[in-house]
Write a structure and sequence with these properties.
alpha+beta, four-stranded antiparallel sheet, hydrolase, LAGLIDADG_dom, endonuclease, DNA endonuclease
Length: 283
C-alpha cells in the first residue's frame, strides 16, 4: 500500500487487530528478529520503494526514534535551516507531524508522535534501518507497537539508502591542495561500521579524526571515484541543499582541465564565476 511517496507494508495480529503495549511492560519482553527474506514470506511484503530506503538513510543520519517514559513512541529529525524543504517533504509524505525551529539553534526539528503516523513510519523503514544506534531504537519501538523487527539486507549500488544518509551526514567540497583544487565527497559518522558500506560499494578511503570527540570519515577524491558517485546521483534521489553541487561536477572537471583555477589563465574569470555559483548552493 502506498502512503503518498512511501510504500507501507501492511501488518496484522492473530485476530486482525493491531495491539499496542506500554513501554513499562516491555522491560523484559523478547521479540522476533527476522530478515527481510524470512519475514516477507509471511505477513510483510518486500519493500522495494526507493523513498523508503532514502527515508531510512535520513533517519540513520539525523533521526531519533524513541519511546517516552509514559510509553509513547515518537520520531525526531533535526536539520539545518537550509533543509526546511526536505523536512516538509517528509511531513507531507507521512501526512502528519510538526516542524518547529529549535530555540537557540540554526535548525528545524520535525516531530512525529501520532500513533497511527508512527505505525506508518515503522512499516516504511522496517528492513531499511541499519545504523547501529538507530537499529536498537527501532527495535524498542517495534516492541511497543507489537511489530517484528526486520533486519536490513546487504546494500548495493542501487540502494537509495546512500542518498538519504548523504543528505543527512555527507558533504561535497573543493579545497586547495599543493596549489591545485581538490574536489572530494565525504560522509562522517562516529562509528566505523556505519560508513564502511560506502567504501565497500563506492571505493575511496576511511579516515579517523580525533576532533569533535572522534569520528570516522569516508572520502572519495579521485576523478574516477567522484564520477562513479555522480552516476549514482543521477540514478538516485537526493533532496538536501548540498546535494545540488552534484550538478556542477562536470563543469568543475572541464574548468580543471583548462587550468582555469590558475590566475594567469584566460579562463580564470570563468573559474571565479564557477566558485561563486558553487558557494551560493550552500546558502
Amino acid at each position: 500500500m502506498l502512503i503518498s511517496g512511501f510504500l507501507v507494508k501492511p501488518r496484522s495480529s492473530k485476530n486482525g487487530v493491531s495491539k499496542t503495549q506500554s513501554a513499562g511492560n516491555q522491560r523484559h519482553k523478547s521479540s522476533l528478529v527476522g530478515t527481510s527474506e524470512t519475514t516477507c514470506t509471511t505477513t510483510y511484503p518486500s519493500s522495494t520503494n526507493k523513498n523508503n530506503e532514502w527515508l531510512a538513510g535520513i533517519l540513520d543520519g539525523e533521526g531519533s526514534i524513541q519511546v517516552s517514559k509514559k510509553g509513547y513512541t515518537f520520531l525526531e529529525i533535526t536539520m539545518g535551516l537550509e533543509d526546511l524543504r526536505l523536512l516538509r517533504y517528509i511531513q507531507q509524505q507521512l501526512e502528519c507531524g510538526s516542524i518547529k525551529m529549535r530555540s537557540g539553534a540554526k535548525a528545524y526539528r520535525y516531530r512525529l508522535h501520532n500513533q497511527l503516523g508512527m505505525m506508518k513510519l515503522i512499516n516504511c523503514i522496517n528492513g531499511n534501518i541499519r545504523h547501529s544506534a538507530r537499529l536498537l531504537q527501532l527495535h524498542r519501538v517495534c516492541q511497543v507497537l507489537d511489530n517484528p523487527l526486520i533486519l536490513p539486507n546487504t546494500l548495493s549500488a542501487q540502494s537509495n539508502w546512500f542518498a538519504g544518509f548523504f543528505d543527512a551526514e555527507g558533504t561535497i567540497g573543493i579545497a586547495m591542495k599543493h596549489r591545485l583544487p581538490q574536489l572530494s565527497i565525504r560522509v562522517n559518522n562516529q562509528l566505523l561500521q556505519d560508513v564502511e558500506s560506502y567504501r565497500v560499494v563506492f571505493g575511496g578511503n576511511i579516515y579517523f579524526s580525533s576532533s569533535q570527540n572522534g569520528y570516522y570519515q569516508w572520502s572519495v577524491q579521485s576523478r574516477k571515484d567522484v564520477i562513479m558517485m555522480r552516476h549514482y546521483f543521477k540514478s538516485s534521489t537526493f533532496r538536501s541543499h548540498k546535494s545540488r553541487r552534484f550538478f556542477l561536477i562536470s563543469e568543475y572537471y572541464s574548468l580543471y582541465d583548462l587550468k582555469a583555477f590558475q590566475p594567469s589563465s584566460m579562463n580564470h574569470k570563468a573559474w571565479l564565476a564557477f566558485l561563486d555559483k558553487w558557494n551560493k548552493l550552500m546558502i
